[in-house]
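Suppose you are handed only these lines of text.
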Amino acid sequence: DASFLHRKTTLHERLLGGLLVHGFDQESCHSRYQSAVYRRNPGRKPSQYLVSKLRRQEALQRRCGPGTAAYANALEQLKSGKSVASPECRYVVSISYRGLGNRIISTASGFLYAMLTDRVFLVDPSTSMDELFCEPFPGTSWLVPPGFPLWYQGFYLSTPERYGKMREDGVLRTDAVNGSAATGELPAFAYIHLDHNQTDHDKLFFCDDDQRLLSNIQWLIIRSDGYIAPGLFLVEAFQEELHRLFPERDAVFHHLGRYLFHPTNRVWGLITRYYDAHFAWAQRVVGIQVRVPWSESPEVLKQIKTCTQNERLLPAVLGEEDEEPLVKTTAPRRGGRGRARPTAVLITSLKAWFYDNMKGMYWERATANGEVVVFDQPSHEEVQRYGVKSHEHKAWAEMYLLSMADALVTSGESTFGYVAQGLSGMRPWVLDMGMANSTVGWPCGRDMSMEPCYHVPPTYGCKRREDAVLPHVRHCKDWPTGLKIV
Ligand code: GDP
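From them, the structure of the protein bound to guanosine-5'-diphosphate can be written out as follows.
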């Protein structure tokens, strides 16, 4: 009986409450139409304003994207080196890099910036973007096509067009832009450097005056491996629009992630085969993401056990001397044969040791309440690898599977976990990685929100030298200098 395998859904639900637009070729990207059928937790509803903004953004992408006359004109302008006064279309090119979690949260928040500034959003295709994700916008492509006139992959601190450098050297000045200073004197593009080694001048990106200046530059190339959205909330000019787009502020990544990142058919195959084999029959699914540098660690194992049992995510196991409890064979009757269906636990990790031990413990010992707990780990790749297709496919599939669980335990500081929690729509229990090597006093705590943490935000406000926090943009628990939306 497959009826309990998948949820019955309406088309509106499959389109995530209007977040997604109908009219894509279903064969080219199964996940776009099927994800809601597999998700046990339907997630938050997008605001009508976000839905209509996305439709306008899609129209902009079609009107100005690669292959259009407007795009060809904009490339000519780029080659000329100067910005025009009122260009037909303006662009953000996003260079996301490092691990997959980093790339996903950086892309999502770069897209938010493009929406806030009415720019076309294009992504650097060199980091497997096309391998992992379907095209998000109908009738156009978000990939920068071959033959782009700038070799932006090489852009870094020493790039002369780096925004922070041009501001520092006085090549660009915010006081000159509102007056008569001709836009023709502005460069055709600026490179926004938002890596961990950004300077204070690079961080001016998050200031109102600088955003006014930047709005006159036709092309912005942004390099970031992090979630810049909390920084955008600090820009006063964006605040009202952000409030209208996200009346539930903690669901920014949740909606943008579900809008943008549809696994390609190959990755969707990994996800659905796993789901049908391991999740479909389960009473409950618990996801545990273990991201530690060690192959094995009894301290972390103890931490996982204490966390999941104290927080009642998993039942306690009996000691060796305890008597085996009588297995109840009458109620509850959900499994059909008078037995409760088991709880499935998905462990993701680069190493197999934690899984082996957890699985062994729940096989060798009975649980106090008679609940049967089944563990599985889809892969153990041993080391993080870059640019290896099968490795990236598995990483994406595992993040996605974690997001399909009913409860989630993540490792602090990890962007891999941030993606899973954001897509799921749940606040996770976070394993405190700083504690891992000492005695476990505080094994895990519930996160403040499901939003990712921005690890390297602007530290001070733009006008006054005070800590840049707002009531709904706070320091992260797992990364105290970071900022997150709550
Ligand atoms: P972060 O380093 O924890 O912030 O997460 P990232 O996703 O940015 O980078 C870690 C990378 O290591 C992933 O993208 C994967 O390539 C690999 N990796 C880490 N943990 C896992 C895991 O549990 N499963 C798989 N398949 N890969 C992992």
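What can we learn from it? The domain at 265-452 is CATH 3.40.50.11350 (Rossmann fold). Residues 98-102, 291, 348-350, 379, 381, 384, 391, 394-395, 398, 414-416 surround guanosine-5'-diphosphate (CB under 6 Å).
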